[in-house]
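One such given next:
>
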Amino acid sequence: MTSAPFVRIDRVPLGMLYMTGATLMFAVSSALSKWQVASYSFDEVLFMRALTSLAICAALILPRTGFSVFRTKRLRDHIGRSTTQSVAQSMIILAFGLMPLAGAVAINFSAPLFATLLAALWLKEKVGLARAAALVIGFLGVLLVAAPGADSFRLGALFALGNAVLLGSVTAAVRGMTTTESVETLTMYQMLILTCVFALGLPIFGFAWPHSGLDLGAMLLNGVFNGLGQYWWTRSLALAPTSAVGPFYYFSLVWAMAIGFFFWGDIPTLGLLAGSAIVVGSGLFLLWHESGKKTPPISGDEPLPE
């Protein structure tokens, strides 16, 4: 009679482990993208990442689902969501090239705030006093992160902010899709359409064959880390409630600060630390506030990975 609760308890720590691992994968992928965009077009970096991630996700998902995973009546929604996400990813890659990694990641964490705001505007969801306060405080944190520094930092912050706004709109859109689409279907269509979109951009933004085996290996590893991160993130949400695993997504900022310090010598400023704490705190409050409500597996109040 007591076996079911014990199974449930065992699944939650495993979900937390998957989420923590996913954050590390995403952080390393972001660092590799920041390194590569200094030598190659942002579109080429994203195309190689998406292509390799598609192969990784296909290898992990298709043996279990077969090609039935692509069965959908919402192809237009998948195309719209993934096309918007391709623009968002382009913006965050450009931000990586213009500002410290941790600053771009911190601003990216404001995406759930924008998702809540856009859901109120588009889906007519009630915001309430608590959510409104979290939005205002969270946006003040974004201003703290974005304001200090040189002009390049400010330009990078604008790209990162644009990414957060678009990710917020994507998250709000995905809320309606989870009623009919599985996470496997959402993941496979995302990777497939992103690959196609970035492939179409290569003649415009340029493609150069990797200058060395090291560069080619880094591009492929970028996709491997991103693909594993996508899969582990999905598995995490399948194993445990968002309220249990969602807070672990913010480990991405810890990894980003550590990688930025060791590889680029980026020392976090007081504004970055204070603003990051405010943005993360606002996101966690929204997550806690919504944890008692019945929501789809992918909600507007949890971070959406790159």
About this structure: Residues 3-290 form one domain. The chain has one domain: 3-290. The CA atoms of residues 81 and 173 lie 7 Å apart.
